[in-house]
Amino acid sequence: MGTFDDRDLSTAIMNADSPVWTLRAAAGRQLAASAKIGEVADILSRLLLDALDTGVTQATAEALLTRSDSVGLRHVLLARSRAASFDTADQLSAALDSDPDWMTTEGADRLIRQLRELTADDDEGVRDEAEGILARMRPREEWSRDPATGPGG
Question: What's the predicted TM-score (pTM) here?
């Protein structure tokens, strides 16, 4: 996205309340990319937990994860910890599990660092989600030593 001025921010905030799911999804993508993410945290949370369409959840979560920073990851983990419906929780998990950046060595290492950082977060839900993901991950060092998972194994 190019420059994102206050007028664009106001439009995205307004579109976050639209009855049209595509406008809410676009608002989620725009707000996730905003430098003023702290100011729109409540709106992002609402979009991540959109009760009307998981497409809004997906678009917002993917945009937050595209930031490749702890702030974006934290928003997704917080929403995952608060998701009341199975469909929303499943969509958030799918966004986390399918982030292509995490399939690279650099991306996986960044994810592990960010998750470890978030295990000390002030919010218990964020901490629990980060710890749960780390517990399911197998350190890359083990993969390289395990002949059963190596090439030809």
Answer: 0.86
